[in-house]
Predict the 3D structure of the following.
Amino acid sequence: MMRSGSSVEVRIPSELGFEKVAMSTASSMAALMGFSEDRIEDLKTAVAEACINAIEHGNQLDSSLNVGVVLSTTDDELEVRVIDDGAGMDHVPAAPDIDRKMMGEEDTRGMGMFLIQALVDEAEWHKGPPGKSFVRLVIRLDPAKDKENK
Amino acid sequence: MQVSTKVTQRAATAASGAAVTVLAFSGDISSTSKEAILAAYHGLEVGNSPLLLDFTGVDYINSSGIAIIIQMLLEAHKAGSRSIGIFGLSAHFKKVFTMVGISKYANLYEDEKAALA
Protein backbone atom coordinates (compact mmCIF):
# COMPACT_ATOMS: atom_id res chain seq x y z
CA MET A 1 0.00 0.00 0.00
CA MET A 2 1.28 3.48 -0.91
CA ARG A 3 2.05 5.89 1.95
CA SER A 4 -0.68 8.48 2.56
CA GLY A 5 0.52 11.94 1.55
CA SER A 6 2.61 10.72 -1.38
CA SER A 7 2.81 13.14 -4.29
CA VAL A 8 3.99 12.79 -7.87
CA GLU A 9 4.32 15.56 -10.44
CA VAL A 10 4.52 15.09 -14.20
CA ARG A 11 4.96 17.80 -16.81
CA ILE A 12 3.84 17.01 -20.34
CA PRO A 13 4.32 19.03 -23.54
CA SER A 14 1.23 20.71 -25.00
CA GLU A 15 1.01 18.13 -27.75
CA LEU A 16 -1.88 15.74 -28.21
CA GLY A 17 -0.92 12.19 -27.35
CA PHE A 18 1.16 13.09 -24.29
CA GLU A 19 -2.01 12.79 -22.19
CA LYS A 20 -1.20 9.06 -22.23
CA VAL A 21 1.82 9.73 -20.02
CA ALA A 22 -0.46 11.31 -17.41
CA MET A 23 -2.93 8.44 -17.81
CA SER A 24 -0.22 5.87 -17.14
CA THR A 25 1.00 7.70 -14.07
CA ALA A 26 -2.51 8.08 -12.65
CA SER A 27 -3.20 4.42 -13.39
CA SER A 28 -0.05 3.29 -11.57
CA MET A 29 -0.83 5.40 -8.50
CA ALA A 30 -4.45 4.27 -8.37
CA ALA A 31 -3.38 0.63 -8.64
CA LEU A 32 -0.89 1.09 -5.77
CA MET A 33 -3.71 2.55 -3.65
CA GLY A 34 -5.92 -0.47 -4.31
CA PHE A 35 -8.51 0.93 -6.72
CA SER A 36 -10.33 -1.68 -8.79
CA GLU A 37 -9.62 -2.08 -12.51
CA ASP A 38 -12.87 -0.48 -13.64
CA ARG A 39 -12.35 2.59 -11.46
CA ILE A 40 -8.80 2.92 -12.76
CA GLU A 41 -10.21 2.90 -16.30
CA ASP A 42 -12.64 5.66 -15.28
CA LEU A 43 -9.77 7.71 -13.84
CA LYS A 44 -7.60 7.20 -16.92
CA THR A 45 -10.32 8.56 -19.21
CA ALA A 46 -11.00 11.52 -16.88
CA VAL A 47 -7.28 12.39 -16.66
CA ALA A 48 -6.87 12.05 -20.44
CA GLU A 49 -9.81 14.39 -21.09
CA ALA A 50 -8.54 16.93 -18.53
CA CYS A 51 -5.10 16.91 -20.17
CA ILE A 52 -6.58 17.22 -23.68
CA ASN A 53 -8.59 20.26 -22.54
CA ALA A 54 -5.45 21.77 -21.01
CA ILE A 55 -3.39 21.10 -24.16
CA GLU A 56 -6.01 22.28 -26.67
CA HIS A 57 -7.88 25.04 -24.85
CA GLY A 58 -5.71 26.10 -21.92
CA ASN A 59 -2.35 26.11 -23.70
CA GLN A 60 -3.73 26.44 -27.25
CA LEU A 61 -1.40 23.66 -28.49
CA ASP A 62 1.58 25.95 -27.80
CA SER A 63 4.54 23.57 -27.72
CA SER A 64 6.56 26.02 -25.59
CA LEU A 65 4.09 25.50 -22.72
CA ASN A 66 3.76 22.45 -20.49
CA VAL A 67 0.76 20.98 -18.74
CA GLY A 68 1.39 20.16 -15.09
CA VAL A 69 -0.17 17.05 -13.59
CA VAL A 70 0.10 16.72 -9.81
CA LEU A 71 -1.13 13.53 -8.18
CA SER A 72 -1.52 13.44 -4.39
CA THR A 73 -2.77 10.71 -2.08
CA THR A 74 -4.46 10.54 1.29
CA ASP A 75 -5.53 7.35 3.04
CA ASP A 76 -8.58 6.97 0.84
CA GLU A 77 -8.36 9.59 -1.91
CA LEU A 78 -6.34 10.20 -5.04
CA GLU A 79 -6.40 13.84 -6.17
CA VAL A 80 -5.20 14.85 -9.63
CA ARG A 81 -4.62 18.51 -10.52
CA VAL A 82 -4.15 19.33 -14.21
CA ILE A 83 -2.66 22.80 -14.55
CA ASP A 84 -2.34 24.96 -17.66
CA ASP A 85 -1.54 28.53 -18.70
CA GLY A 86 -5.03 29.43 -19.89
CA ALA A 87 -7.55 31.70 -18.23
CA GLY A 88 -9.61 28.80 -16.88
CA MET A 89 -13.22 27.82 -17.43
CA ASP A 90 -16.03 30.36 -16.97
CA HIS A 91 -18.67 27.68 -16.81
CA VAL A 92 -19.03 23.97 -17.24
CA PRO A 93 -20.88 23.20 -20.51
CA ALA A 94 -24.23 21.46 -20.44
CA ALA A 95 -24.26 17.68 -20.73
CA PRO A 96 -24.14 16.46 -24.34
CA ASP A 97 -27.46 15.72 -26.01
CA ILE A 98 -27.07 12.86 -28.49
CA ASP A 99 -30.41 13.63 -30.18
CA ARG A 100 -29.33 17.23 -30.86
CA LYS A 101 -25.97 16.00 -32.12
CA MET A 102 -27.67 13.55 -34.48
CA MET A 103 -29.89 16.36 -35.80
CA GLY A 104 -26.81 18.52 -36.44
CA GLU A 105 -28.03 21.05 -33.85
CA GLU A 106 -25.08 20.51 -31.49
CA ASP A 107 -21.37 20.07 -32.20
CA THR A 108 -20.47 16.37 -32.26
CA ARG A 109 -17.50 17.27 -30.00
CA GLY A 110 -17.66 18.78 -26.52
CA MET A 111 -18.04 15.67 -24.35
CA GLY A 112 -14.79 15.82 -22.41
CA MET A 113 -15.98 17.76 -19.38
CA PHE A 114 -19.15 15.69 -19.17
CA LEU A 115 -17.08 12.50 -19.11
CA ILE A 116 -14.75 13.92 -16.46
CA GLN A 117 -17.68 14.79 -14.17
CA ALA A 118 -19.37 11.46 -14.76
CA LEU A 119 -16.31 9.29 -14.14
CA VAL A 120 -14.75 10.70 -10.96
CA ASP A 121 -16.12 11.45 -7.49
CA GLU A 122 -15.27 15.18 -7.62
CA ALA A 123 -14.36 17.54 -10.46
CA GLU A 124 -13.78 21.26 -10.00
CA TRP A 125 -12.48 23.88 -12.41
CA HIS A 126 -10.46 26.75 -10.92
CA LYS A 127 -9.68 29.99 -12.77
CA GLY A 128 -6.35 31.70 -12.21
CA PRO A 129 -3.50 33.64 -13.79
CA PRO A 130 -1.26 31.86 -16.34
CA GLY A 131 0.06 28.65 -14.87
CA LYS A 132 -2.49 28.69 -12.07
CA SER A 133 -5.73 27.57 -13.76
CA PHE A 134 -6.43 23.96 -13.02
CA VAL A 135 -8.99 21.21 -12.88
CA ARG A 136 -9.06 19.13 -9.71
CA LEU A 137 -10.22 15.53 -9.91
CA VAL A 138 -10.72 13.23 -6.93
CA ILE A 139 -11.48 9.54 -6.70
CA ARG A 140 -12.15 7.93 -3.33
CA LEU A 141 -11.59 4.36 -2.31
CA ASP A 142 -14.95 2.70 -1.88
CA PRO A 143 -14.84 -0.57 0.09
CA ALA A 144 -17.82 -1.89 -1.87
CA LYS A 145 -16.22 -1.24 -5.27
CA ASP A 146 -12.51 -1.53 -4.56
CA LYS A 147 -12.33 -4.38 -2.08
CA GLU A 148 -10.98 -6.84 -4.65
CA ASN A 149 -7.66 -4.99 -4.75
CA LYS A 150 -7.29 -4.11 -1.10
CA MET B 1 2.75 11.17 -30.16
CA GLN B 2 -0.65 10.01 -31.33
CA VAL B 3 -0.87 6.53 -32.83
CA SER B 4 -2.48 6.54 -36.26
CA THR B 5 -5.76 4.80 -36.95
CA LYS B 6 -5.93 1.92 -39.39
CA VAL B 7 -9.24 0.92 -40.92
CA THR B 8 -9.73 -2.31 -42.80
CA GLN B 9 -12.90 -3.36 -44.52
CA ARG B 10 -14.17 -6.92 -44.75
CA ALA B 11 -17.38 -8.70 -45.70
CA ALA B 12 -19.34 -10.88 -43.31
CA THR B 13 -22.61 -12.74 -43.37
CA ALA B 14 -25.30 -12.45 -40.72
CA ALA B 15 -27.01 -15.56 -39.36
CA SER B 16 -29.99 -14.55 -41.50
CA GLY B 17 -27.80 -14.81 -44.61
CA ALA B 18 -27.73 -11.05 -45.15
CA ALA B 19 -24.50 -9.42 -46.32
CA VAL B 20 -22.80 -7.27 -43.67
CA THR B 21 -19.86 -4.90 -44.03
CA VAL B 22 -17.34 -4.71 -41.20
CA LEU B 23 -14.98 -1.77 -40.68
CA ALA B 24 -12.26 -2.89 -38.29
CA PHE B 25 -10.31 -0.17 -36.48
CA SER B 26 -6.90 -0.45 -34.89
CA GLY B 27 -4.58 2.01 -33.15
CA ASP B 28 -5.98 5.13 -31.52
CA ILE B 29 -9.42 6.65 -32.04
CA SER B 30 -8.74 10.34 -31.46
CA SER B 31 -8.79 13.68 -33.28
CA THR B 32 -6.27 12.42 -35.85
CA SER B 33 -8.59 9.55 -36.84
CA LYS B 34 -11.12 11.69 -38.68
CA GLU B 35 -9.76 11.29 -42.21
CA ALA B 36 -9.14 7.54 -41.92
CA ILE B 37 -12.54 6.75 -40.41
CA LEU B 38 -14.72 9.02 -42.52
CA ALA B 39 -12.85 8.16 -45.75
CA ALA B 40 -13.49 4.47 -45.07
CA TYR B 41 -17.15 5.18 -44.39
CA HIS B 42 -17.53 7.37 -47.47
CA GLY B 43 -15.84 4.68 -49.55
CA LEU B 44 -18.50 2.09 -48.75
CA GLU B 45 -20.79 1.02 -51.55
CA VAL B 46 -24.01 2.95 -51.52
CA GLY B 47 -26.73 0.70 -50.20
CA ASN B 48 -28.50 -0.39 -47.10
CA SER B 49 -26.43 -3.37 -45.97
CA PRO B 50 -25.81 -3.29 -42.23
CA LEU B 51 -22.46 -1.94 -41.08
CA LEU B 52 -20.49 -3.23 -38.09
CA LEU B 53 -17.67 -1.28 -36.45
CA ASP B 54 -15.03 -3.55 -34.91
CA PHE B 55 -13.07 -1.95 -32.04
CA THR B 56 -11.24 -5.13 -31.03
CA GLY B 57 -7.87 -3.77 -32.15
CA VAL B 58 -8.27 -0.31 -30.65
CA ASP B 59 -5.88 0.66 -27.85
CA TYR B 60 -7.12 4.14 -26.94
CA ILE B 61 -10.31 6.15 -27.44
CA ASN B 62 -10.91 9.75 -26.36
CA SER B 63 -13.82 12.16 -26.67
CA SER B 64 -12.52 13.60 -29.96
CA GLY B 65 -12.52 10.07 -31.38
CA ILE B 66 -16.01 9.40 -30.04
CA ALA B 67 -17.14 12.60 -31.82
CA ILE B 68 -15.94 11.12 -35.13
CA ILE B 69 -18.00 7.97 -34.52
CA ILE B 70 -21.01 10.19 -33.79
CA GLN B 71 -20.31 12.07 -37.05
CA MET B 72 -20.46 8.75 -38.91
CA LEU B 73 -23.71 7.78 -37.15
CA LEU B 74 -25.14 11.21 -37.98
CA GLU B 75 -24.36 10.74 -41.69
CA ALA B 76 -25.87 7.25 -41.68
CA HIS B 77 -28.91 8.53 -39.81
CA LYS B 78 -29.40 11.36 -42.32
CA ALA B 79 -29.12 8.94 -45.22
CA GLY B 80 -31.65 6.79 -43.38
CA SER B 81 -30.51 3.63 -45.05
CA ARG B 82 -27.93 1.77 -43.02
CA SER B 83 -28.03 0.26 -39.54
CA ILE B 84 -24.78 0.40 -37.58
CA GLY B 85 -23.66 -1.99 -34.85
CA ILE B 86 -20.54 -1.83 -32.70
CA PHE B 87 -18.54 -4.66 -31.14
CA GLY B 88 -15.16 -5.28 -29.53
CA LEU B 89 -15.31 -2.45 -26.99
CA SER B 90 -13.89 -2.95 -23.51
CA ALA B 91 -16.43 -2.89 -20.67
CA HIS B 92 -15.22 0.63 -19.83
CA PHE B 93 -15.81 2.02 -23.31
CA LYS B 94 -19.13 0.20 -23.60
CA LYS B 95 -20.11 2.21 -20.54
CA VAL B 96 -18.71 5.45 -22.00
CA PHE B 97 -20.46 4.93 -25.36
CA THR B 98 -23.71 4.34 -23.45
CA MET B 99 -23.16 7.43 -21.27
CA VAL B 100 -22.79 9.74 -24.28
CA GLY B 101 -25.87 8.23 -25.96
CA ILE B 102 -24.28 6.30 -28.84
CA SER B 103 -26.16 3.17 -27.80
CA LYS B 104 -29.38 4.96 -28.74
CA TYR B 105 -28.30 5.03 -32.39
CA ALA B 106 -26.07 1.95 -32.68
CA ASN B 107 -26.43 -1.45 -31.03
CA LEU B 108 -23.46 -2.43 -28.88
CA TYR B 109 -22.50 -6.11 -29.04
CA GLU B 110 -20.03 -8.16 -27.07
CA ASP B 111 -18.27 -9.62 -30.10
CA GLU B 112 -18.64 -10.29 -33.81
CA LYS B 113 -20.54 -13.54 -33.25
CA ALA B 114 -23.17 -11.72 -31.21
CA ALA B 115 -23.32 -8.89 -33.75
CA LEU B 116 -23.97 -11.32 -36.61
CA ALA B 117 -26.49 -13.49 -34.72
